[in-house]
C-alpha cells in the first residue's frame, strides 16, 4: 500500500486540484475554531499543506502518513511529519483529523479498529474530524479516465466504481535519457455512508455537512465526533 501511495505522491503535481483542496481545508479550519483546540494530529497528512495551514494559525500540529515520499514532501515545508501508523503514535491530542477521504482507504471490516485507535489518541472531550466521499463523488467525479501527456511524462489514471469500491490503476511513464521508465500502482477506496462510520465508534457523532469540491452537488461529507 505504501508503495502505491508513494507513486501517488509523485504524480500529485500533475493532477493539481490544489484550489479545490484548499476549499476543503478551510472547512476544517472553520470547524476547529469552534472548539478549544491547540494540539492536533493529522492522520494521512499527505503533502503537508493542511499541516502548514494549521501551523501558521498557531496550532501545535503534527502529521503521520504511510507514504515516506509524502512525509518527505511535508517535511520540506517545515512541518512536523513522520512515516508511521496511528497505532504507533503516543500521547493524546485535543483534535485528530483525517483529511481528503482518508477513511475511504479503509475497508469496512477495519473501520472499527481504526476509529478505536483514533479515540485512544484523543483527550477526553477531544474532537475528531474526517471527510468521506459521497456515492455521487465516487460515481460521477472519481470514476473515469484522466490522461496527462507532457514532454517528459505520460500519466494515465483509470478509475472504476462498482457501487462499493473504487479501483484505480495508475500508470506513469517517465523519460530517462532516451528511454521511458514505467511505474504502476493500484489503489482501492471503499464507499462508506454515515451509518458505517457512526456505528463503528464509541465517539459521539456531532454533525455532518456536505462539501462541493468538484461539482454543484456534495461530493464529500465532513463529519465531526466528540470523545466523551
Chart the SSEs and their pairings:
Layout: H1 2-15, H2 18-32, E1 39-43, H3 49-56, E2 60-65, H4 68-75, E3 81-83, E4 93-98, H5 108-120, E5 122-133, H6 135-142, E6 144-149, E7 153-161, E8 165-176, E9 179-190, H7 194-198, E10 204-211, E11 220-226
Parallel strand pairs: 1-2, 1-4, 2-3, 4-5
Antiparallel strand pairs: 5-11, 6-7, 7-8, 8-9, 10-11
Written account of the structure:
- The structure is a single chain.
- The chain has 228 residues and is of the alpha/beta class.
- It has two domains: 2-134 and 192-226, 3-Layer(aba) Sandwich (Rossmann fold), CATH 3.40.50.150; 137-189, S-adenosyl-L-methionine-dependent methyltransferases (N-terminal domain of TfIIb, Single Sheet), CATH 2.20.25.110.
- Helices cover 31% and strands 38% of the residues.
- The chain is built from seven helices and eleven strands.
- The strands form two sheets. Strands 3-2-1-4-5-11-10 form a seven-stranded mixed sheet. A four-stranded antiparallel sheet has the order 6-7-8-9.
- Strand 7 and strand 8 form a beta hairpin.
- Helix 1 packs across helix 4 (68-75).
- The protein starts with a helix and ends with a strand.
- The relative contact order is 0.17.
- The model has no long low-confidence stretch (mean pLDDT 95).
Q: Which CATH architecture of the largest domain would you pick?
A: 3-Layer(aba) Sandwich
Task: List unreliable stretches of 5+ residues.
Answer: none
User: What's the average pLDDT?
Assistant: 95
Q: Count the E strands.
A: 11
- The secondary-structure element order is HHEHEHEEHEHEEEEHEE
Number of separate helices: 7
CATH superfamily of the largest domain: Vaccinia Virus protein VP39
Report the sheet with the most strands, covering strand number, pairing sense and barrel closure.
Answer: 7 strands, mixed
CATH class of the largest domain: Alpha Beta
The CATH topology of the largest domain turns out to be: Rossmann fold
Strand order of the largest sheet: 3-2-1-4-5-11-10
Mass-distribution shape = globular
**How far apart lie the N and C ends?**
33 Å
Structural class: alpha/beta
Portion in strands: 35-45%
Helix content: 25-40%
How large is the radius of gyration? 18 Å
Counting structural domains, the number is 2
Amino acid at each position: 500500500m505504501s508503495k502505491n501511495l508513494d507513486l501517488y505522491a509523485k504524480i500529485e503535481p500533475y493532477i493539481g486540484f490544489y484550489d479545490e483542496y484548499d476549499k476543503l481545508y478551510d472547512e476544517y479550519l472553520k470547524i476547529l475554531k469552534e472548539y478549544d483546540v491547540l494540539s492536533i494530529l493529522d492522520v494521512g497528512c499527505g503533502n503537508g499543506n493542511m499541516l502548514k495551514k494549521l501551523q501558521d494559525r498557531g496550532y501545535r500540529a503534527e502529521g503521520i502518513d504511510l507514504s515516506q515520499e509524502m512525509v518527505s514532501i511535508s517535511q520540506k515545508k517545515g512541518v512536523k511529519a513522520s512515516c508511521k501508523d496511528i497505532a504507533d503514535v503516543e500521547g493524546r491530542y485535543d483534535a485528530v483529523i483525517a483529511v481528503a477521504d482518508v477513511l475511504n482507504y479503509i475497508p469496512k471490516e477495519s473501520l472499527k479498529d481504526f476509529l478505536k485507535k483514533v479515540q485512544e489518541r484523543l483527550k477526553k472531550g477531544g474532537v475528531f474530524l474526517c471527510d468521506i466521499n459521497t456515492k455521487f463523488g465516487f460515481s460521477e467525479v472519481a470514476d473515469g479516465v484522466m490522461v496527462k501527456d507532457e514532454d517528459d511524462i505520460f500519466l494515465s489514471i483509470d478509475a472504476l466504481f462498482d457501487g462499493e469500491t473504487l479501483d484505480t490503476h495508475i500508470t506513469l511513464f517517465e523519460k530517462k535519457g532516451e528511454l521511458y521508465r514505467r511505474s504502476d500502482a493500484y489503489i482501492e477506496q471503499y464507499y462508506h455512508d454515515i451509518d458505517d462510520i457512526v456505528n463503528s465508534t464509541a465517539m459521539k457523532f456531532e454533525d455532518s455537512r456536505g462539501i462541493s469540491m468538484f461539482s454543484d452537488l456534495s461530493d464529500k461529507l465532513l463529519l465531526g465526533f466528540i470523545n466523551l
